[in-house]
Amino acid sequence: MTYAIAQAAERSGLSIDTLRYYERIGLVEPPARDSGGRRSYTDEDLSWLEFLTKLRTTGMPIRMMREYAQLRMRGAGTNSRRRQILIDHRKDVLNRIAELQTCLEALNYKINLYDDMVQEASA
Questions:
Q1: What is the CA radius of gyration of the chain?
Q2: Disulfide check for 41: which of 45, 65, 88, 93 has CB 3.0–4.6 Å away?
Q3: pLDDT in tens, 26-65
C-alpha cells in the first residue's frame, strides 16, 4: 500500500514539514513519486519513520540518527556499526530512566509529605 504525504504524516504522527525535513537532511531516502510527481510512502517507509520517532523520543541526537540512517542506506555491511550505535544509545536511555526514577521518588516523597500534612490538618 502507498500513502500520500498527508496520509504518511497522519499515520506517522509527524508533520508534513518534518517529513520533508527528514528527507532533506538524509534521515529518509526520497520516497517514490506517483505519476503526478507527488511523494508516495510505503508501509516500509512508515515503519522506518516509526523507528526514527522512537529514536528521537528517547533523545538520540539528530546527528546520530543521520549516521544511523546513512549506514542503513549503505546496507548489511554496516550492521556492526549500527548495532553499536543502538547499544550506546540504549545505555544513555537506561541512564536517563534511572535519573527519572530518582526524580519520581523525590516527587512521591514530597506528595506523601503533603498527604500527611493535609490529613493532620483535617484531624
A1: 21
A2: 45
A3: 999 999 999 999 999 999 999 999 999 999 999 999 999 9
What gap in Å lies between CA 99 and CA 59, rounded to an integer?
14
- Report how many domains make up the chain: 1
Containing structural domain, residue 49? 2-88
- Angle among Cα 83, 89, 90 to the nearest 5 degrees reads 90
* Residue type (1 letter), 95: N
For residue 67, the tally of other CB atoms under 10 A from its CB is: 17
Pairing state between β 39-42 and 2-3: antiparallel
Is position 47 within any domain?
A: yes
CATH number at residue 60: 1.10.1660.10
CB atoms within 10 A of CB 4: 15
